[in-house]
Amino acid sequence: VQLQASGGGLAQAGGNLRLSCAASGRPFSSLAFGWFRQAPGQEREFVASVGRDSKSTLFSDSVKDRFTISRDSAKNTVYLQMNTLKPEDTGLYYCAAGERALTHAAVWGHRYWGQGTQVTVSS
Prior knowledge:
Layout: E1 2-6, E2 9-12, E3 17-24, E4 32-38, E5 45-50, E6 57-59, E7 67-72, E8 77-82, E9 91-98, E10 112-113, E11 117-122
Parallel strand pairs: 2-11
Antiparallel strand pairs: 1-3, 3-8, 4-5, 4-9, 5-6, 7-8, 9-10, 9-11
């Protein structure tokens, strides 16, 4: 599975960004997806996950009510809509996938990883 993340950039606090993750190499419907982020000097942390059916979603407490995750089977793409951004949302955002039905919040639950896209939020 190849995952291509895009959409990162510089935003002001309170602003919005939308990340995209284009998947290829496996049937899109067989994959569940996750977004993770990593700040310099910190461990990679879970942000959001979506199951195969798109109805099952999971968010970390730090982004719940601000971020949404969705998937478009026609475009083989997963989106992370990030609203009301905060400086602590800054990091390298990774798209990840696993061949399972349900959401998953652990790094080890995702077999495939993209290259990451940088998000920087200024105060």
